[in-house]
Amino acid sequence: MGGNGKHRWIFSFYQRSNSSSSPKQSKNLPPHEFLCPISGSLMFDPVVIPSGQSFDRISIQVCRDLGFTPTLQDGSTPDFSTIIPNLAIKTTILAWCRDHHAQDPAPPDYSSVEKIVLSKIPEQTSSRLTSGPDIRVSERELLKAVAENPPVLFSHAVTEIGPSVNSRLLCSTSTSSSSDESVIVTASSPYTPLPLSTRPACFSASGSSFSSTEITLSETPNLKSQSSSSLEEQELVLKLKSSDIFEQETGLVLLRKITRTKEEARVSLCSTRLLSALRSLITSRYSVVQTNAIASLVNLSLEKSNKVVIVRSGFVPLLIDALKAGSSEAQEHAAGALFSLALEDDNKMAIGVLGALQPLLHALRSESERTQHDSALALYHLSLIQSNRVKLVKLGAVLTLLSMVKSGDSASRVLLVLCNLAACPEGKSAMLDANAVAILVGMLRESELVCKATRENCVAALFALSHGSMRFKGLAKEARAVEVLREVEERGSERAKDKAKRILQIMKDRKEDEDDEIDWEAALESGGLSRTRYRVGKDDFAANSSDF
Predict the structure, then answer these.
(1) Fewest Cβ atoms nearer than 10 Å: which of 200, 234, 425, 530?
(2) Where does the U-box domain lie (predicted)?
(3) Which residues contact 403 (CB under 8 A, 6 or more apart)?
(4) Contact status, residue 271 vs residue 310, Cβ threshold 8 Å
(5) pLDDT tens digits, 500-526
(6) What is the CA radius of gyration of the chain?
(7) How far is CA 274 from the centre of its chain?
(8) Which domains does the chain have, with CATH numbers?
(9) Beta bridge partners of 195
(10) What is the pTM assigned to this prediction?
């Protein structure tokens, strides 16, 4: 091999032998996701890379030191440029070890991991690594510098292709007869079984806002006449990788149009080559290029089979950067892309670990209605898992969301997130501390000023808070919630009536439990026992002291 310092090999994942393991033994084997794809052992210090995959930190360090990029069993090539500690999976691994009476993962030895890596490299390459390749120190340093600081190509934008399209908004609670248009949340979040839109607000199947420079298929007869999707992909990749900015814009507009109108093309065009070309354009300093690149990604992400592929291709950190510092339209599409990717259960933890929660919280106060809409629904779907709920509570999301509810900013969608947070102990405690019961009851008391969806979500949030909380009844009593809930039970929608009835029943049951408590003082007196000696309550100590 040449001395370019970059080689690839395929790692074999942890192998389970069905022939040598009994059912009882296989049951005690660690889950596949707990094992480092490189070393094959339980991860001691797991870190997550931009693609969402987790590795042991020492394994990545060995790969960096050896200058190799592995090709994993699924054909992907991980990007080790950025790593983030994966505390969620580390905690899960330790919990699994406790539950199965297994030893906690031990710190891996560098030399042992290095031997594992070298054993998987072809013999000729391995000998070159151990003896040292024929490359001067100055060249090695130069290669390392180029790898750490790749050249950045800034292009020149010619025309504005995608003007702002804030005027056409999609309703957050719109439904459709197609199963692709809506999702009903059931087991993951029993408190909020709502049909929600699964299409980002920035997506419009009927048309999009392109300027007069829009390029149609008729202007590119070569693409129109080619029936093979691979030829179509090659043509697009050539345009996207061109050094000419006008060619890049042309390719992006064409890709955006094809993936908007041809659903079957979304799967065939979501290839490694095209995603690699698209990834470099999302980092463009020119808003037109960046906006159309992210918009194309939104279209590709609409297909369920593409969602995990896109996240594992390292797009989430790029979308986060665009949401933080992109143009207004780029932020709309970035929020839409994160929302679309968050619909896939396998992506939820990775998106949270990679740091999307804080920017999405900030985007809730964006001036763009579309950015607010998609950010809220992204947070709703991300908060369906426990690890992201805890992260949001630690980020102070409860106070932020409750202040938005009081001000009426996107109250209906924000309440969806609060319903999910109320389903975990940390979120419930934070909401009760922040006077959420009084705020929600106050919203219901002003029912003529809020829409039907907001009223329903207020009742759903109160229902979530009422479960398993001894504090709820006292706070609800202070807020005079009973009279408001009875009014909802009489005049509200069917969903609100059901929730209000169940909350009132919970409060009634607790009142009966309190009434059924034994009057120990009366019982003791009737039995002829000493009231002073056996008195129950806060005066016990004083009463017992008086006997001496």
Answers:
(1) 530
(2) 29-103
(3) none
(4) no
(5) 888 888 887 755 555 444 454 555 555
(6) 29
(7) 24
(8) 32-108 (3.30.40.10), 230-384 (1.25.10.10), 401-510 (1.25.10.10)
(9) 184
(10) 0.61
